Amino acid sequence: MFIEQGVNPENRFWRYLVGLALIFTASIVGQVPLLGAIFYETISKGKAYPLDNEQMMQFFEPNLTLFLILISFAFAMLGIVFVVRYWHKQTLLSVTTSRKEVDWGRVFFSFSIWAGFMIVSTLVMYFMSPDSLVFNFKPLPFAILVLIGVLLIPIQTSTEEYVFRGYLMQGFANLAKNKWVPLVVTSVVFGAMHLSNPEVSKMGNIIFVYYIGTGFFLGIITLMDEGMELALGFHAANNLIGALLVTSDWSAFQTHSVFKDISEPQAGIDIIMPVVIIYPILLYIFSRKYQWTNWKEKLSGKIEMQQDSNNH
């Protein structure tokens, strides 16, 4: 069973707090190239130092900004590998899945189904609202974006999944000895992590319904499927296809995407719809395909303390 694989007498909760601090430190080290580039520009060219997230996102050319931001996640991922392997004495597989090896078919199925939905819905929006979504395609910048995105965005999304649906899910299981506390806490913290996103100031706190709802969706599919594969695929598709398809002056990522949203942002049905309609449909599709049963036990059952680490 996936969440139980990290539950053993040696894995006290304080060890996860220390591990989280180490992972965070690795991500800070990964921000050195971005900070170094900013200091170089301000000193050598006299540019004003960016004082907030919006100014920083517009400080460099979009592809360079994206590359420098994503580098920190590669360092964080190395931090996760180090903490899991040497601090907790677990294998990376044990915080990825309960299966004997990663099921890449699940990763690609989840990626494909969400990528397909995003592409179709974006095209529908473009043809229905040509005044708000304009064609923004520039071949060379877009090709560079594809290269950066394909190489680094899956690392960014996988880092977030390993922290929330893998590492912390098992960490809170050690603390609570049940499954519903890890699900609730990691989902809420995942949503709160997006507090600094520019979308929050533009749309208001209602957007946390989407962020926290997405956290719950990813947590549910991880617990029901006994592994992170579906969550890894979904999250990678969400950020990669999103970065390639649509950008705006107020989004978290400024990219040379195919389309640009020039409408005034407002929280409408499109914020609530994924949580109350689209995610339940996806849950139904996944549950049918992978024959999920015993929902109550998998999402809220008690966890017995293991006498060994149950590592593969």
Automatic annotation (TrEMBL):
One of its GO terms (molecular function) is symporter activity. It comes from the Bacteria. Pfam families: Rce1-like. The keyword Transmembrane helix applies. The chain crosses the membrane at residues 16-43, 64-87, 107-128, 140-159, 179-195, 207-224, 267-286. GO terms for biological process: CAAX-box protein maturation. Residues 143-241 form the CAAX prenyl protease 2/Lysostaphin resistance protein A-like domain. GO terms for cellular component: membrane. SUPFAM superfamilies: Proton glutamate symport protein. The keyword Transmembrane helix applies. Keywords: Membrane, Transmembrane, Transmembrane helix. PANTHER family: MEMBRANE-ASSOCIATED PROTEASE-RELATED, PROTEASE. This is CAAX prenyl protease 2/Lysostaphin resistance protein A-like domain-containing protein. It comes from Flavobacterium granuli.
